[in-house]
Amino acid sequence: MDEAATIFDKIAEVCRHLFSSQELMATLQKPGFMLAAFLVINLVVFVETGLLVGFFLPGDSLLVTAGLVCFHSHWNLPLLLVTLSLAAIIGDTVGYTIGWRTGPKIFNREKSLLFARDHLLKAQAFYERHGGKTIILARFMPIIRTFAPVVAGVGGMRYRKFLFYNIFGGIGWVCSMVLTGYYLTRLLDPLLQPILGANFRIQDHIEKVIIVVVLLSISPPFFVWVRHKLTGKVTPPTAPGPDRLALAPDKLASAPVAAGEP
User: Fold this and answer.
1) Angstrom distance (rounded) from CA 105 to CA 93
2) What is the pTM (predicted TM-score) of this model?
3) Which residue has the higher pLDDT, 109 or 104?
4) Which residue blocks in 197-241 are alpha helix, DSSP H?
5) Are 200 and 192 in contact (CB under 8 A)?
6) Mind listing the pLDDT tens digit for each residue in 128-156?
7) Which of 48, 81, 164, 188 could form a disulfide with 54 if both were Cys (CB 3.0 to 4.6 A apart)?
8) By 3-state DSSP, what share of the chain in percent is helix, strand and coil, each rounded to 5?
9) 241, 158 contact by CB (below 8 A)
10) CB contact set of 141 (below 8 Å; sequence gap of 6+)
11) Closest alpha carbon to 136 in 99, 106, 163, 158
12) How many CA atoms lie within 13 A of 78 on its CB side?
C-alpha cells in the first residue's frame, strides 16, 4: 500500500510541473522517479494525440525534456523511444476511431472548455490541402496533431493507409524530439562552453530550447500560408473516400467534411 501511495505521489509531482520545463526536468532527475516519469510522459503523448481534450498538453517540449533527462539520468533510451512511439500510434488510432464512429456531426459539436471547434476546422482545412500526408506533417504541429486523425476518420481514409502514415509519423515525431533533447548536451555543451564559459550547460537553458523547438514546429504552416498569399494558389480538396460515402452519403454531402483519399 505504501509503495502504491509513493508512486501516485511521484506521478502527482510530475504532473504539477508539466508546464514548466525547468522544474519538470529537475523533478524527473530525482532518484526513483523513472517509472512515474515514463507513465506520465506516455499518458500525455497518448492523450494529446488520441483525445480531443489533449490539444493544450505540451507534447513537443515534454519529449525534448524527456530526451535531456534520459541522457543525464541514464534512462533506457530504446525503451523510452519504443513506449512513446506506441503511445503516439495508439493515440492517433483512437482519434481516427472517434472520427470514424462520430462522423460529420462532430463538426456541429458546441465549443467548450475541453473542445475547440475552431481547431478541428483548421485541421480539416489542412487535411483538405495535404490529404494523407497530414497524418505525418501534423505530428510536428501543435494542436493540429490532436485533431488530424479525427478528421481522417471522418473523411473516410482507409485504415490501412492511415495506419501506414500513423506509424511513420508517430515514430518520426517521437524519435526526432527525444533524440534532439538527448544529443543537445553531448553536441552543444562542448561547442558553446569555450564561448560562454566552462560552467555553461544547455540543460540550464531548457526553456529557450523549447521555444526554438516550438517555433520550428509551427513554422511550416506559416510559410505555406505566406506562399499561398503571395502566389494566390489554392489547392483544391480531393474527393471523399468511397468507404465513407458508402456509409453515410447524405451526411457527407451536407456536412463540412474533410477530404479523404480512396
Assistant:
1) 19
2) 0.76
3) 104
4) 206-231
5) yes
6) 776 778 888 888 888 888 888 888 888 88
7) 48
8) 80, 0, 20
9) yes
10) 126, 217, 218, 220, 221
11) 163
12) 0
DSSP class of residue 30? S
Is 4 strand, coil or helix?
A: helix
Q: What angle do CA 196, 65, 199 make, to 5 degrees?
A: 20
Residue 71 one-letter amino acid? F
Count of residues for the chain? 262
CA 120 to chain centre: 15
Return phi, psi of residue 112, to 5°. Answer: -145, 180
Measured distance CA(85)–CA(77) in Å, rounded:
12
| Alpha carbons 93 and 224: distance in angstroms, whole number | 27
Q: Bridge-partner residues for 112, per DSSP?
A: 115
Per-position b or e across 47-72, b if 16+ CB within 10 A of its CB = bbbbbbebbebbbbbbbbbbbbbbbe
137 vs 220: CA distance, rounded Å: 9
- Is residue 47 within 8 A of residue 140, CB to CB? The reply is no
